[in-house]
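Thread: "does anyone have the structure for this chain?"

Original post by V.I.:
We have the sequence but no experimental structure in hand. Need at least a predicted one for the grant figures.
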Amino acid sequence: MKKFLLVLTTMLFAIVALAGCGANNKQSSNEKVIKVGATTVPHAEILEQVKEDLAKDGIKLEIVEYSDYVQPNLNLNDKELDANYFQHVPYLEDFIKQHPEVKLVSAGGIHIEPMGVYSKKVKKLDELKDGATVSIPNDPTNGGRALALLAKAGVITLKDGVGISATVHDVVGNPKHLKFQELEAAQVPRTLEDVDAAVINSNFAMQIQLNPVKDNIFIEDASSPYVNIVAVRTGDENRPEIQALMKALKSEKVKKFIQEKYNGAVVATF
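Reply from O.Q.:
Generated one for you, tokens below.
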């Protein structure tokens, strides 16, 4: 009899345990997962701040980190991601022109990262020697943005009306005979030791421990239009998970994190 009761008790425990596992599996299956592609600094760091907030809403945030500006859009379009967070609208618009099969839109802006000029050899742009080499991003939007910044600093002159669409062929005034080295944006910081100056996006500058506020020799001011956005596939803007993500990113908690973490190198726009 005792042996029978022992077996019966063991069976009951097993049934309860299995029931518990079933409940856990059911709960897990009800959890919604969104994958967001991002460059490491500051985008992935900012996304990390909202993981717990989204978890409270039953949404698991998975952050997929990238070191380039091409794959995040292609992967999003191919439904390998639910959103990405690394670019501004001018870049996205140009990307779509180059890849008409891509159907992406902005779900909203979060912050701006001023682009700056950095140098290990001079402390001011007017100290650049004749024939100095300056590295800039080679993608159309950031390349044009870099040239526009150099024009604003007065070291080159651009053809009238080209704006952010400028290329090195639009440089009509170059009194210092600067030579431009065009590279993928993520690679530009690596040239800093070899060139006379480099025009670097703030997220990549911070990855090599440059402080965009203190270490630049010239930087965009607050009037810059390049707000970094969360991009999604066309039609996904109203998905509950995306709306929850945007609400979490536009919180006072995130604004405070940006202010304290980046000290002006990244500025919240909400």
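V.I.: this helps a lot. The chain has two domains: 30-113+226-268, 116-219.
O.Q.: and Residues 30-113+226-268 form a domain with the D-Maltodextrin-Binding Protein; domain 2 fold (CATH 3.40.190.10).
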